[in-house]
Automatic annotation (TrEMBL):
Domain Sulfatase N-terminal span(s) in chain numbering: 29-350
Protein name (Swiss-Prot/TrEMBL): Arylsulfatase
Pfam assignment, any one: Sulfatase
Keyword set includes Nucleus: no
First and last residue of the signal peptide: 1-20
Organism of derivation: Ruegeria sediminis
SUPFAM superfamilies reported in the protein's UniProt record: Alkaline phosphatase-like (SSF53649)
Transmembrane parts of this sequence: none
InterPro entries: Alkaline_phosphatase_core_sf (IPR017850), Sulfatase (IPR050738), Sulfatase_N (IPR000917)
Superkingdom classification of source: Bacteria
UniProt family annotation: Belongs to the sulfatase family.
Cofactor(s) named in the record: Ca(2+)
Amino acid sequence: MRNLLLCTILLAATTNSPSAAIAQGAEKPNVVLMMVDNLGWGELGVYGGGELRGAATPRLDALAAEGMRLLNFNVEPQCTPSRSALMTGRRPIRSATTKVVWGVPYGMVNWEITMAELFSEAGYATGMFGKWHLGDIPGRFPTDQGFDEWYGVANTTDESEYSSQFQFDASVSGQPMIQEARRDESPRDVKPYDIASRREIDSELIARAIDFMKRSVADDQPFFAFVPFTQPHLPTLPHPDFDGITGNGHYADVLAEIDFRSGQILDSIEELGIEDDTIVIWLSDNGPEYFRPWHGTAGPWRGAYFTAWEGSLRVPFLIRWPGRIGAGTTSNEIVHLVDMLPTLGRVAGYEVPDDRIIDGVDQLDFFLGQQTRSNREGFIVYNNDDVYGYKWRNWKLHLIELDNMNSEPRPLNVPRVFNLITDPKEEYEIQEEATWILPVIFEKIVEFESTLVEEPPVPFGVLEPYEPPKN
């Protein structure tokens, strides 16, 4: 791998292309990946929100101007599936991580190879500061899965409400906790995760992430900092310093806080003098909240998370790498969350696993402007364990419809097809104009599902240690 990387750098240095710029910069750029929790496409100023949503977002708008903004970046419908897809580069149907669950062993088995493990093998310091939601049993915590250190919550932010709910009984349910751990250590409880700490936790995550970056720079070691915010997931309550700051309610206050916290990370990168050698990625894990009064907006798109509507799948995505990724660029090309693992592998120098199916595709040349088209035309849409549809080019095919997370799924006798350019709300099916799409997309669905026969998925609820059956 070392010789391959050296050859790539020498070849790039002889060409007048963005690849040459990579060779002239850090051999192993730092990577800071900030992920917010359930923030819809339409919230930031650069996506049509900002002041229209009650709070300007100047820091994130500026980040978009300094790098690339995707208009068609896609995730999974729920929290656990999206985080699994990011960490493994694999669709969650393969990893038994297709849904949010309670009360049973769940999460990403230790057999899976994570982005953090790959960064670590490539010589990076790895730190995670925030919400995990990929398992809360030994073998499945962040520090079991490649992170050198972690501070945050293992599960969902809903848990912060438990202790203040009607007839709460910690003796039977347990008290949700904020935890911390070092690699291969059992997590240590720091303090209860309740409404008071829910308001303050994101400020703590940012402080710890900044400290991690400072220590890594002092040690002259490249780093991967994963910062999964807990905001704006319900209960959408701001830090006391931001409570009432906008005059437009708690959601707007939280939006202002998210912008400020993101700016703190960006300021620290600048103060450390590592801007040119650091890739910054900022994205959301899901579409907006559904429950009022915490609900958000997906802008022109229909729906909220837990569905297959475009508002569930399409979220904000910003990426900056000065001198490599063109400033102020935008694209409506389709990119999926699973693409992050192979894309970052090329800049970090890690090998993408070849002993299992990886669904992500390398998008580095697209990000660098070496090509105008994404390396992806679409993807199958799973919700829980069922195929809800397929998104391909500007088309969306639905096999099952779910209006919102509390409604009943409706299997469709005849698939519905929408054109997302002419009908972003997916309201007016154009069956007569688009029947040619059906055989094209069904062939793609069959092709994907055949890979589940080739490599059977991890069984749901399996305990550690897990090893796949021998073929």
